[in-house]
Amino acid sequence: MWPLGTCFGGGPGSAGLRVGRDRPGGVFQAKPGHRPALRGPSRRHSRRRARRSRFPPGGRGRGVIGARPQRRPPANMSPPLFSLPEARLRFTTSTREALINKSIKPLLNAFNQVPGSENEKKCTLDQVFRVVVEEEIINKAPCENLLAIISLAINGVTEGICTASTPFVLLGDVLDCLPLDQCDKIFTFVEKNVATWKSNTFYSAGKNYLLRMCNDLLRRLSKSQNTVFCGRIQLFLARLFPLSEKSGLNLQSQFNLENVTVFNTNEHESTLGQKHTEEREEGMDVEEGEMGDDEAPTSCSIPIDYNLYRKFWSLQDYFRNPVQCYEKVSWKTFLKYSEEVLAVFKSYKLDDTQASRKKLEELKTGGEHVYFAKFLTSEKLMDLQLSDSNFRRHILLQYLILFQYLKGQVKFKSSNYVLTDEQSLWIEDTTKAVYQHILNTEENWNSWKNEGCPSFVKERPPDSKPMRPVRKRPAPEDFLGKGSNKKILMGNEELTRLWNLCPDNMEACKSESREYMPTLEEFFEEAIEQADPENMVENKYKAVNNSNYGWRALRLLARRSPHFFQPTNQQFKSLPEYLENMVIKLAKELPPPSEEIKTGEDDDEEDNDALLKENNESPEAQRDKAMTGEQIESFANRLGEQWKALAPYLEMKDSDIRQIELDSEDVRMRAKQLLVAWQDQEGPHATPENLITALTKAGLGDLAESLTNDTEGSS
């Protein structure tokens, strides 16, 4: 059954029929003269036929009229188009957000979401970075904001969302627009990231940008007022580019002709002659001895006048441009001036060594040394410069560099520049007089440039490495001898003998023959004798004033003497004073040095009298003598834990008591340190009598009684 509203007979010339709903039969017939509802040759029908003709066979039915076809999307849909304004706006917003959050994530998200090819998005982001930097510069933002944008661009290059040259373009824009004081801060950032610029990601893309940027900065800076900044730029370029970079080499050996040394060329304005005349007139009134060592006049057989001044500084023009020496007239002038200047160097007296040391000490104490790249050509400084050894060394070094160029083989030197035999002979004689093997490096540098600057890294050919024969590792049994001793063989008779002197290495190290440290008695025997007033040895001849002896004495005291680490209230100004005090203490503790055996009846009688006198001393006299080291050692063992109760009565400070407690945990060692500190404090008054009195006051009567008995027993 046909659907409702279907027209039949839609051909040309027919009125057309359609099925109705209300009429019997459901068919309406057009009245005569009535305009049909649908004419045959209509545009709608033609469109329908065209639409039906597009369907393939087996598709929609051809008999059904009026049904609308369903739209299907094409198989290959084209990607969305790139919009520059939208991408620029999106990237600008994301850049501001990334600067606030200090993170590159907003930029990464925006880069992935914006439609378009990768090159289009990278170029747009590069433009956005420059626009943001421009806005910050116009708004006079601080340098930190600009550096944050550049750092963001560096991270963008690392993530692959912008081109590798973007950070360098931003740096160039910033340095071109900012004043020099802010450029210093920006360049500090450039210096710190030199490792980043040398990486594979940035070096090839940014080395030309950095070179152009540094050259632009050098043109803006003043060499005299911004010397430090210029030096930093040169050092940065030296760190950035490799040594074999030809853009930084003077391959053609060109000279810096702009380095002109300015000096007084008008003889009428010179004051050298007047100066010496006035000095001679004033020197008539000065008596001998009134002038100090530093102000003493310098003796010279050649007077310093304007002619010498002019000839001396005229040589700088030849050092600046050595090519002049190949001309006959210029060479004669150079030869004449050089002979006079070198003669002055030979006859003019240098500064005194002591005066030079004083100058060095003044430079060390007065601050950093100021270095000037140019010579000072004032006439007033001429005599001081000639007497300065460093200044002479600079001039002689200039001579050596000039001679090396004249004799050396330089690749780009003209073939007409040839020395005569007479010139070569004079150069050789003069070079021998001043040469000190300081230009070997310069010769190697010239030969390297003449060879075309080959790479310093030499790769080894794969076939040049010889194959080493594999040696079998010897077994341990091969080192042992065949005899009953099983002597270890070291491959050499002498080594075998030394190794087998003692089978146990540790026992060999502990042998008494390896004890090289002297005893206190042996080392300080000479110093103790010199400290005795009866020997009448002057202070300057004493061993304690020898710095080498003092160093060894401190080492020995630290190892063998208990006095070295004891706190003391005495302050010593010098090491000899301290050692002299220690020698006096050791003289009281150590036994007297051995004396030569005396012969004769008179000597025997003197010894017997001294021995009787020593034995007949009363106990009171023994208690008035200073305590010895043995007495302190024995009494400290008995004092033990009661040392702290005795300390206040020996007039020891609380700080000294705390120091003794920190130094050792052994009560006997603490007691010994207390007595030694008391002995250092009291000196000759550290007698058993005073110690007995302090023990009695501290309530240690038993110890006082035992010390009294020991004193009486020893007497």
UniProtKB/TrEMBL annotation:
> Which biological process, per GO, is one annotated for this protein?
apoptotic process
Q: Where is each Death domain found?
A: 628-711
Question: What Gene Ontology molecular function terms does this protein carry?
Answer: DNA binding; RNA binding
Q: Which GO terms describe its cellular component?
A: cytoplasm; nuclear matrix; nucleoplasm; THO complex part of transcription export complex
SMART domains listed in its UniProt record: DEATH
Annotated keywords: Acetylation, Apoptosis, Cytoplasm, DNA-binding, Isopeptide bond, mRNA processing, mRNA splicing, mRNA transport, Nucleus, Phosphoprotein, RNA-binding, Transcription, Transcription regulation, Transport, Ubl conjugation
Origin: domain of life: Eukaryota
Q: What residue spans carry the Acidic residues bias annotation?
A: 280-295
Protein family: Belongs to the THOC1 family.
- Its protein name is THO complex subunit 1
Protein species of origin: Taeniopygia guttata (Zebra finch)
